[in-house]
Amino acid sequence: MTTTIEVGMLGLGTVGSGVVERLTRSAAKIEQTQGIRLHLAAVAVNHLNAPRTVQLPIGTRLTDSLTNVVCDRKIQLVIEVMGTVATAKKAIVAALNQGKAVVTANKDLIATAGPELAALAKKQGCDLFYEASVAGGIPILRTLTDSYVTDNVQAVSGIINGTANYMLSAMATGQSYEQALATAQATGYAEADPTNDVAGIDAAYKLMILSRFAFGQELSLPQIAPTGITHLSASVCRLAAENGWQIKLLAQIQRHGSGLYCRVAPVAVPVDQPLSQINGVQNAVAVQSEAIGTSLYTGPGAGSTATANSVLNDVLVAAKHLINGYRMIRNQKRSVSLTVTRFDQLPQTYLGIGPVAPEAVKYYANEADFSVKTIADDCYQITGLSAVKRKKLRANLPLTLIPIAGTTDWKQVTENSITSPINVAI
Ligand SMILES: NC(=O)C1=CN([C@@H]2O[C@H](COP(=O)(O)OP(=O)(O)OC[C@H]3O[C@@H](n4cnc5c(N)ncnc54)[C@H](OP(=O)(O)O)[C@@H]3O)[C@@H](O)[C@H]2O)C=CC1
Ligand SMILES: N[C@@H](CC=O)C(=O)O
């Protein structure tokens, strides 16, 4: 027996077009294997007459009115893939208030208003799913929800912005920042306005969502204070690569006792570490946990098809719940309140790249009491840099300072606090 679910969608851009394309291709398979027919009743867009790369199924209504979709009584499930915060929130609230299930890819909204929307969904007995909001095609939220129930996550470390990773990979092979960004935009990886991608804000939003799922801890953007990739040049990326490091925009959270340590920043990852080998639009999330140890989840982090696949998987779970009359908010862990500290407040080893003579760096190292090793012309490894020393160094020498992955002295950190040390390798 096949049951039809009436679906409405907001947005028909990169992700929305992918949803239509995947839905059309896999309709027969979905019907055969799941007994569900997903009928795309209506799609809302901003510019009704703009040219489209995808053809809507016969009978699907195209409208420029969001209300026309979210208030359509027949529609049981709304897919929000238009982006924006205020407008999307209003539309999702309206859909939930009418008892519709909602699937969204909107990390900006879920990071900032997730708990509020989840509470409304719970009150209304509706599903609210957002797998595509973190790491595009990688089913990381469902994995954290389903596969770590009896486990205890200690650390999450990931490359979770496809645009930045695409750009850094291209820059390491010599492409300019501008060329790399233009290609990321043309391929649909970047946001409509790419500021959040290159400023680390998109990765920070995704880390905020991961933190809920991994630890039950709410994080705010100011707590993370992300550093993006706008200050990096192709020559810095290339010099690091030639000397054994790949610069990656890493998003990290680690728990040590009652403390949670976080970072979103470019980090020099030694080439023998798996995260250094994640290139282009690929994303990766390394999860360190008590029972499993380290697991690495990789896949495309952006782009039409992969993101649409995550959206459609959510749609199918919600559709099954609608059919069975069973609704459940599969969501983050019980909330906790940990003390949040940024990695950059802790002493660690940095890669220093810039046009500075070794004598000048050594002189300054003696003055400010840290140790330095010359790696190559204009490339130094600087050990024991506290936040204060780093600030002074930056003010005095034209070096781009990039933390080296895995160089925080956690033993010292935990000795100085009441927390207990955990041996976290990532
Ligand atoms: N691109 C990607 O790889 C990924 C994107 N996401 C998220 O998915 C969402 C969509 O991204 P993406 O597809 O790239 O965005 P696009 O900019 O490609 O598409 C946005 C779509 O939404 C429509 N839209 C915008 N505002 C309105 C409005 N007020 N009313 C009706 N329609 C509107 C636009 O209409 P029109 O076409 O007429 O202008 C367009 O069709 C975002 O939240 C993004 O962060 C998540 C994971 C990956
Ligand atoms: N702009 C984002 C899209 C997916 O979330 C990215 O580049 O990762």
TrEMBL record:
GO terms for molecular function: homoserine dehydrogenase activity; NADP binding. Residues 139-316 form the Homoserine dehydrogenase catalytic domain. NADPH binds at residue 107. The keyword Cytoplasm does not apply. Keywords: Amino-acid biosynthesis, Methionine biosynthesis, NADP, Oxidoreductase, Sodium, Threonine biosynthesis. The keyword Oxidoreductase applies. Residues 11-131 form the Aspartate/homoserine dehydrogenase NAD-binding domain. This is Homoserine dehydrogenase. The lineage of its organism: Bacteria, Bacillati, Bacillota, Bacilli, Lactobacillales.
